[in-house]
Design brief:
Blueprint: E1 17-20, E2 26-31, H1 33-50, H2 65-71, H3 73-96, E3 102-104, H4 105-120, H5 122-131, H6 135-161, H7 182-195, H8 197-224
Antiparallel strand pairs: 1-2, 2-3
Helix pairs in contact: 1-3, 1-4, 3-5, 3-6, 3-8, 4-6, 5-6, 6-7, 6-8, 7-8
Amino acid sequence: MSATADHSSAGEPSRSRGVRSRNGRPSRSYDSSRLVALSDGVYAIAITLLVLNLVVPAGTADSGLGEALRDLEPELFAYALTVLVLGAFWLAHHRLFVDVPRVTERVLWVNVLYLGFIALLPFPTDVLGSYGDLRPAVVLYAAAIGAVSLAGTYLEIVLGREGLFAPIDDQPVERDPILPPVGLVFLATIPVAWWNPRLATWLWILAAFWPSLMRRLYARRRRSS
């Protein structure tokens, strides 16, 4: 008996069900809850690892504590920026899978690729906090965020191609138009970083709030139409 055989007659639910992708070929599908649980766990671990870089040097005297804390400002900036960016990515990922009850194996692997880039972010964050005035550190950070965004965009494209967005009340799901990914702003600042690394970091702050701003503008336009 095949792994996709129907066990309903035996009173046992099937672990996976077949779905038909848009190309018409049958494909095995899986409950999306485990994908979402794994993704949430990776996000939680990534955010937790960020704080490990915030350390007051051992042996700091009482009189030197204030100076030691001021010396942590670059690390605190890198930490706060990455938390904002990770929050934006997590929220986008959460919204993406709200209407996706089941996923295919292809989606699972693309999501693993996406999570691999998410798990990598503590490293460029540490480099940025330690060497934030140097071009290579700024370029590395921008490239890492860009990679996450491009992987997330590809994940959304695959979900659409597989036809996995569930309709509501037999009506197609009305999805917001694809907003310019946060990562594209970071990628666009790479040339800026070669000229002025500090200016590039200020543009990143705008990028962190970009999705929320665009979503509000889109919602306001829909209400007025």
